[in-house]
Structure formats: C-alpha cells, structure tokens
Write a structure and sequence with these properties.
- The protein has about 400 residues and is mainly α.
- It has a single domain, classed as Growth Hormone, Chain: A, CATH 1.20.1250.20.
- It contains 18 helices and no strands.
- It is globular.
- The protein starts with a helix and ends with a helix.
Length: about 400
C-alpha cells in the first residue's frame, strides 16, 4: 500500500473514531432524557424536578464547553477523551442502581462536566489531522452524531420500557462509552501519528490569519452564539418533553410515547444534508439560519393550532420538522462553521464556544418548559418556543440588512 493510501485510510478511520466517540456520548447523556416520563412516574415527582436534573447537565456541559475550548490545545487527546467517556460511564452505572432522585442532579452535573471535554477536542483533532479532501466529508459525518446517538437511545429506551425498566438505558450508556474509551486508548496513537505537525509550519501563518478576522466576522460569531442558544433551547426542550406532551395530551403509554418521539431524531438525521444544500444555494451563513428558524417557527405555530385536535400524526410530523431544522442549525454552527473557519480561528475553541452558547439554552430549556407546563399546561411552552424562533428570524434579518449596507459602503 502506498503512503498516500495509508494516509487516506488513517484519516478515514480517525473520522470514524471521532464520530463513534461523540455518538456513544449521546447514548450516555440522553439515557436520562429519553426516560424522563418513566423516571417521573417511578419517583412520583413533578416536571420541574425531573427538568432540573437535565438542566444541571446542560449547565455543566455548556460551561465546560467554553473552558475546554480555551484549553483543548494543551490536552493529551488520548487520555482526556478516554477519561471523559469513562467518567460518563461511571455516572450511568451509578444511576443504573436507581438511587434516590435527589442525587440525580449531582450525578448528571458530573456527567456534563466529563462529556464537555469531547466536542472541542474532537473538532481540534480532526482539524489538525485532516487534509482538505477529507474536511467536508468530516463535517457532514460529525453532524450526524447527534441524531444517530438520539435514535439509538430513544429506540433502546422504548424497548427497555416494554420490559425491564428504564434503568437498563443507563446500563447501555455506561457499557457503550466504556467500551469505546478502551478502543480509543489502543488506536489513538496510530490514527494521530501524522499530526506532527503540519502545524509547525502553518502555526505562524494561522496566527497571522487569526489576527485578521474582521469586525463583521466577529459580529457574526456573536450572532451565531445567540442562534445556538435559541436552537438548543428548542431542540433539547422538545427532545426531553415530547414524550410527556404526547402522554399528557393523547394519553399514550410511556413506551409508545418514546417510540413516537423517535420521529424527531430520525428526521433530524437529514439535518446536515438539508443545511449543506441550503448553504450552497444561499451562500450567506446568517441567511441560512434565518430561513431555518423561520421554518421552525411556522411548524411550532402549526403545533399550537393542532395540539387540541385528534390529528396527532400531523402534530408528530410537525415536531419532526422542527427537529430537522434545529439539527440543521446545530450541525451548521457547531461543525461546518468551526472547520470552515479554521484559518481564522482555533477550530476547537470556536466549536467549544458555540456549543457552550448552545448549552446555555439547553440549561434553561428543560427546567423552564417543565415549570411552565406544571403551572399552566403546554400551550405556554409552545408560545415561548415559537417566540424565540421568531426573535432569531428578526435578529438574522436585521444583521443581514446591516451587513449588506456595510459591504456596499466599502
């Protein structure tokens, strides 16, 4: 095998391992979200109590994203990535024992701290080790990790709730992340051996390029951070609460509610393909987000009109469409933008900051929506989701107009 073929194979295997690590991390983080209805019934607690657990994870994960984005260049990727997965595995094994509900929030806080290491470190690893030929495929592949991991978790949880109970979702999450962590320890050195460093020569060039980032680019990144917060508020809020919404509204059982919720991540799998096609057609990053948020707001308003009717198939389809648009936004901002801008910014840092902004929204989503539902039903929650999506559309429209005026003046 020629050197070029060996290098090509190494890069493809590295992309697969990074995809696998982040995919299984969703199994060990959504093992709680996918079973929130069953956990609520098992412990006889309110929506706000179960929502607080999820918010604790999102808080630790979001803050950790920013911190790890700053320092990920200094990490030993072999041990930090494996360690993050093993911490998450230990937490899932603990919750498999069905401990008191008041310990869940602390355990899930620790899970968030551990898993927050992953995204920025994985994006930086890819950025440092891939050539241009493999970069775009890597963006698309990595953007599929969220829906893929969600499908696995919700599908398995539906089966576990039919027989055996929700606790086996935690066992599955613990086993998967632990196994992948061990594999990474064995293969890391071989897959990243070439990293030495295409960067020594390029480091100085990249440093100069990073200093040249324009004010408009920096303003775009701030706007992207706001978009991520709103996107994750909607995406993670729906992922967590749609099973409960279906149960409360239509009287579906726990397992059926989880199975029907699978529509969200399954449709979300097409988010990355949707945003690739849209970005090629529009060629304006902010406008891409404007279109996706507008479509999301329209679908949520559709849910508000239909939720009190018997048209639950249409309601679930609209939830799936919202999931598609949210996953498209998430993929675009956390995968495409950081890797596309690697000459101007440290990809790991940018991915960490944008993902951290997203999880600021996630932190608020579960507890806020659960509390609103406890006090006044789900109508208020839908109104908030639609309002936030509409606010993102307005912000994108204003920024696009101002950006064009600034460009025209030049």
């Amino acid at each position: 095998m020629t050197e070029n073929k060996k290098n090509d194979k190494r890069q493809k295997l590295l992309i697969f391992m990074c995809w696998l690590m982040y995919t299984v991390s969703y199994v060990s983080r959504y093992s709680y979200n996918a079973n929130v209805v069953a956990i609520k019934d098992f412990y006889s607690v309110t929506n706000s109590v179960t929502g607080l657990v999820g918010s604790c994870f999102f808080f630790a994960y979001g803050l950790g994203q920013i911190i790890n984005g700053l320092f990920c260049k200094k990490y030993n990727k072999k041990f930090f990535l494996a360690g993050a997965l093993l911490v998450s595995g230990a937490v899932n094994f603990y919750l498999f024992t069905c401990p008191p509900i008041n310990t869940y929030k602390y355990a899930w806080l620790l899970n968030g701290c551990g898993l927050s290491v992953l995204w920025s470190s994985l994006l930086l690893t890819l950025s440092e080790n891939l050539d241009e030929k493999h970069l775009t495929p890597a963006m698309v592949i990595m953007s599929s990790t969220v829906p893929a991991g969600t499908v696995i978790t919700y599908g398995a949880s539906a089966l576990f709730n039919l027989g055996g109970g929700f606790k086996y979702s935690f066992l599955l999450g613990g086993l998967m992340v632990s196994a992948v962590a061990v594999v990474w320890l064995f293969v890391c050195d071989k897959l990243t051996a070439k990293q030495e460093k295409k960067g020594e020569v390029e480091a100085e060039i990249n440093t100069v390029n990073k200093k040249k980032a324009s004010g408009l680019v920096l303003a775009s990144l701030i706007i992207f951070g706001v978009f991520m917060a709103i996107c994750n508020f909607v995406k993670d809020g729906l992922n967590a609460w749609v099973p409960q919404i279906l149960k409360d509204t239509y009287g579906f059982g726990d397992s059926l509610s989880i199975v029907l919720t699978l529509v969200l991540p399954v449709v979300g799998l097409f988010g990355s393909m949707t945003v690739v096609a849209l970005a090629k057609a529009v060629k304006n990053d902010v406008a891409v987000n404007l279109i996706l948020f507008a479509a999301s707001a329209a679908c949520i308003i559709g849910v508000m009109f239909l939720i009190r009717t018997d048209a639950y198939v249409l309601v679930i389809a609209l939830f799936g469409a919202v999931s598609l648009f949210a996953h498209a936004i998430n993929s675009f901002l956390t995968s495409f933008v950081p890797l596309k801008m690697r000459d101007e910014f440290n990809s790991g840092f940018l991915a960490g900051v944008l993902n951290g902004c997203g999880y600021a929204g996630s932190t608020l989503s579960m507890y806020t929506l659960g509390t609103i539902a406890d006090n006044g039903g789900w109508d208020g929650a839908f109104s908030l989701l639609a309002g936030l999506s509409a606010a993102a559309v307005a912000l994108a429209a204003v920024f696009t107009i101002l950006g064009r005026k600034k460009t025209a003046l030049k």
